Amino acid sequence: MTQPSVHSVDRVVVTIPTIAEAEKFYTAFGMNVKKNGDHIDLYTHGHPHCWMSVTANGKPKQLQYIRFGIYEQDVASFEVVVAKSGLACKPHPMALAQGSEKGIWLKTPDGTVLQLVVAEKVSPTQKSPKATPRGAARPPASAHMRSKQTSVHPRWLSHVLLFSPDVSGMVTFCEDVLGLKLSDRSVDIVAFMHTPHGSDHHLFAFVKSDGPGLHHTSWDVGSLDDVGEGSEQLRTAGYPDGWGVGRHVLGSNYFYYARDPWGSFAEYSFDIDYVAKGKDWVSGDYPPEDSFYLWGPAVPEWFTVNTETAKAA
Ligand SMILES: [Fe+2]
In angstroms, what is the span from residue 94 Cα to ligand 1's centroid? Predict the structure, then answer.
């Protein structure tokens, strides 16, 4: 039996204290926010897929589970792999309550619940393409008028980065159970995984912490200008805290991380490296000073605080 591989991050499911602040933040970020009973579903404008579900439960923000997409022909192989791993678990109660408990359920070694479902591949099939500029052109000048700015709208989910107390253990789990491949890492501090079915340099990644949790979701935008104008969009909407604009080394993307009301982040990403289906990526293990960012402002001290662990709460 060949090792099957997940092909996409299909859904991120989190709980937060109140729905109104989530609706306001993600709308300001540029998402297409749809109310659905007791939760909101996050779409990107012009794309049919629901990437994220956010439910209010009156408690501090917590990652509940992540759904991965798999191909139909890999279901039997995944059932064997998950059974052998000893990590199978019952469906998450929120999925049961919403009637979306189908598929294979398991926990990562650090306790994060995952769901594997047969789904259409929604991870990108090509490198983040540059979009035509938004706003009214005024040739031959390159920059459009500030008064003519339109909202930055992310195009799709690029990746999810989780906190983990055991980054190396998560890499092994991703390779042996999810079929992901290591793109790059920096010792046991951070690691980035791609799918052999073709994805960005990372669709799933980890950073060292004292426990599991969601650090950020990352959303592809169409230009470096979109990254910068997105940061302005959030400052204008009353969200002044963030990190960027800058450029990562591992992954190479231009970034701006907007700090959400719960202390985690939504990232605008442009021009991330792409690992095409059937292509090898020569992974490296880089020292911290060569792995984080090429240029950008100083990293805020709250950037790597895990608000989901008891120590931070
Ligand atoms: Fe990221």
Answer: 26
User: Scanning the structure block, which residue is given the tokens 């629901």?
Assistant: 50
**Side-chain half-sphere CA neighbours of 288 within 13 A:** 5
Ligand 1 mean position, distance from CA 219 (Å): 8
Which residues place a Cβ less than 5 A from the ion ligand 1? 218, 267
Domain ranges for the chain, please list them: 8-122+154-295
Which tokens is 270 given? Answer: 């442009």
The CA distance from 72 to 151, in Å, is 38
pTM of the shown model: 0.96
Q: In what order do the strands lie in the sheet with 39-43?
A: 32-36, 39-43, 50-56, 8-16, 62-70, 113-118, 104-107
DSSP 137-200: -BTTBSSPPGGG-------EEEEEEEEES-HHHHHHHIIIII--EEEEEETTTEEEEE-TT-EE
Hey, which CATH number is domain 8-122+154-295, 1.10.10.10, 3.40.1380.10, 3.10.180.10, 3.30.530.20? 3.10.180.10
The two structure tokens encoding residue 12? 């991120």
Span 100-136, pLDDT tens digits: 999 999 999 999 999 999 999 999 999 989 998 777 7
Q: What is the CA(217)–ligand 1 centre distance, in A?
A: 7
CA distance 52 to 37: 15
**Residue 149 Cα to ligand 1 middle (Å):** 25
Q: What is the pLDDT of residues 10-39, one digit of tens each?
A: 999 999 999 999 999 999 999 999 998 779
